[in-house]
Amino acid sequence: MTTPSAAPSSSTPTAITTPAPASGVPRRSGSLGPVGLVLAGGISVQFGGALAALLIPRAGALGVVTLRLLAAALVLLLICRPRLRGHSRADWGTVVVFGVTMAAMNALFYQSVARIPLGPAVTLEVLGPLALSVVTSRRAVNILWAGLALAGVFLLGGGGFGDLDPMGVAFALGAGAMWAAYIVFSARTGRRFPQADGLALAMVVAALLCLPLGIVEAGAKLVDPMTIALGSAVAILSSVLPYTLELLALRRIPAATFAILMSLEPAVAATAGFFVLNQALSAVEALAIALVIAATMGAVRTQVGRGKVKS
């Protein structure tokens, strides 16, 4: 996979925009390429989430988050070796906020998974990106796709969440709000830093923020070899791969389209739950997945159509 070049740095990022494709790159591939990155990242993060659900009884929710972020930060630092000099105060401010958002999103989500099943947790969490897609979209058709995806999301959740732990629901909704913020600041970080340098630095911020919480909850369990091995696998699947792929994708597609693509997460989570956690799909859940996929295909076709009109 070829890593796209970073957009020029700007001291005053404003709206969520899509950098112009590099010269010589066909616009059609520029539309479809990022979609593939997003889908690959979604598959990776949900299978990582299923593995994390198995690890939570061993190290606790905050312990898993700490292991995940620490391992991811170390891997990204070794791979990216980000340059620390030559960045403006606004650049560093964006990275710090991105890191805080990432830490909060992970901590809240795993607190949710510790209380409610993976499928409903992701279903509630994805409401954040869906809301973002409606708020940031400048095209009425994207509101249609978001609404269709929302219908599938609620159907996948069984039409209601009244029998779930209220704290688990609250944590999932909070994670969704942080996910929406993550999308915004991931795009801004990608425009300000080359390659995945900004992601590596933000991951360090997130890991340092969660480290004290993980030590308090998990203690000596954090240094157990098996726990470290499983936590590292979760880090690769749930952080390193998806965050890098999403950051690259957000340089080339609008955040509204990206947010609608996130509607696939409950469907992928249900699939991961089936293979990893032995959770079977009902007919209603299959219908919900079909609605979400239809919304995602509509969003993709809309994005490709925009590329054709502009070409």
From TrEMBL:
Residues 1-23 have a biased composition (Low complexity). The lineage of its organism: Bacteria, Bacillati, Actinomycetota, Actinomycetes, Kitasatosporales. It is found in: Cell membrane. The chain crosses the membrane at residues 35-56, 62-80, 92-110, 116-136, 143-161, 167-187, 199-220, 226-245, 257-277, 283-300. Belongs to the EamA transporter family. Residues 1-28 are annotated as: Disordered. The keyword Amino-acid biosynthesis does not apply. Pfam families: EamA. GO terms for cellular component: plasma membrane. Its main location: membrane. It comes from Streptomyces viridochromogenes Tue57. This is Putative Integral membrane protein.
